What we know:
The protein is an alpha+beta fold. It folds into 2 domains: 5-56, Orthogonal Bundle (Multidrug-efflux Transporter Regulator, Chain: A, Domain 2); 81-154, 2-Layer Sandwich (TATA-Binding Protein). 43% of the residues lie in helices and 24% in strands. It has 5 helices and 7 strands, in the order βααββαββαββα. It has helices spanning 8-15, 19-27, 44-57, 93-108, 138-159; strands at residues 5-6, 34-36, 39-43, 63-69, 82-88, 118-124, 129-136. The strands form 2 sheets. A 4-stranded antiparallel beta sheet has the order 4-6-7-5, covered by helices on one side. It has a 3-stranded antiparallel beta sheet with strand order 1-3-2. Helix 4 (93-108) packs antiparallel against helix 5 (138-159). InterPro entries: DNA-bd_dom_put_sf, HTH_17, SinI_DNA-bd. Pfam families: HTH_17. This is Excisionase family DNA binding protein. It comes from Lacrimispora xylanisolvens.
Amino acid sequence: MEEKYYTITQVAEKLNLHHKTIRNFINSGKLNASRMGKQWRVTQEDLDLFVQSRESSEQNESSDSFTILKQPEILRGGRCQVSSVIDLADIAKNQYMRISNLLLAVMNGRNGDFQEASINMKYYEGEQKMRIFLWGGLKFMEEMLNTVGLLTEEEKGNGE
Length: 160
């Protein structure tokens, strides 16, 4: 039987994720893929294994989650690195999507300033809670915390 291969774009469409997220899964080793020419291809078997591992790791919890890792998490040259976990309560799914998209835009729009930074956001639908994990330099942390502060104050102002 002939093996079915998918492009990164096709996998992204199947999983309803951005193609860069799929590329990050491949680069981090979470999703097995093979190079065919200049493009990555994912077999149906590897896609099924990836979906199963994600489902089992979420332990039947209804949530959305994604991570962006720009470079390996290595402390180089004695530079200061900071981590932070932010919990936001009473967040509806549409607010989660808005906040996460804006945080990603801030992070990705800095022309390489935040290359060693990472962000992971998870939404707990049943609890209407958002958790944000940040790791990076002082500049990154300052910018992201200020942005979260502005966004949550804006959400609070819209809700009253």
